[in-house]
Write a structure and sequence with these properties.
Shape: globular
Distance between the termini: 59 Å
Structural class: mainly alpha
Strand content: under 5%
Helix content: over 70%
Radius of gyration: 21 Å
Largest sheet: none
Number of strands: 0
Order of helices and strands: HHHHHHHHHHHHHHH
Amino acid sequence: MTSQSLPSSTRPWTFWCKPALFVLVAVIGLYYVKWSPYYLKSFVAADSHSIGGSIINDHPDSPLSAALAYAQVYFLAIWKAAVLAVILGSLVQVLIPRDWLLRAFGKAGFGSTLRGGLFALPGMMCSCCAAPVAAGLRRQNVSVGAALAFWIANPVLNPATLIFMGFVLGWQFTALRLVAGVALVLGVALFAQRISRPEALPDAAVEAVEVASNVDTGSLLTRWMRTLWQLFWTTIPIYVVAVLILGAARVWLFPHVDGAMGNGWLWLVPLAIVGTLFVIPTAAEIPIVQTLMGLGLGTAPAVALLMTLPSVSLPSLLMLRKSFDRQVLVAVALLTMLVGIVSGAAGALLL
């Protein structure tokens, strides 16, 4: 015998206020941090065919200066989105009914993974800013595939980035990024789901969660502050340290580019690896690739960077170390490198 879920008429009005509050915070926050600035930036990209300069080409002789300079530029670019991400990652755990999340994203399969990717599109966040929200979803027992699709789709399928790319690099690059991006998001998420620990969420379990979620266990403010602190402590400190280390390492990670760097595997594979590990703000891959191609970088390694730089990064992987199995995160990184290499080879033939 299966239990019956509570009819919506028995739920108090406060139940519906919580999801509405989450939507309000998300809409206001995303409008201020993402939607409005990107709307204005699209006109700049269309007029000037540029969205700024590369952020990896200063202080080439001093790792310490490079680390501090990059950290300053990076955090000034993303701090608003990072704050919003931590807030949303905590609020999704206290304002959204868990049974709603489980019904939409809880089952391991293509449908749940696809919905996770679509759910990411309005966010337009970089991989590190999407990580706290993905961690919050995982703490609500959202499936591995759906959470990964949400995390990777945020930077890879960012609609604003695709528009910027079309104006700056050309719409052929945008088309390749879109096709390869969909393959990356769904392929990596579904593969990682298969190798993760088995997850079973029968309907009866979802309904039991629904009944339990109607019982408050403390004040909303207390639960939110506790959740906010836990999410912050497990993601942000290691994030800051990793960004500083990579800021210093960029002195060696990105080689001097000249006209001799063509489409050979000599540069395609190493730059796909570097792009997977390095961390950048949203859409920063576009001016980086534009600058490097202007200096002589071939199409194949340029496309590899265009795919791997935004997808994941070492800091974002470390931020999610408690949310996914280690083998899942390793698989995500390796598959991202592989997609970057294949995309670079395809770009050399098609672009």
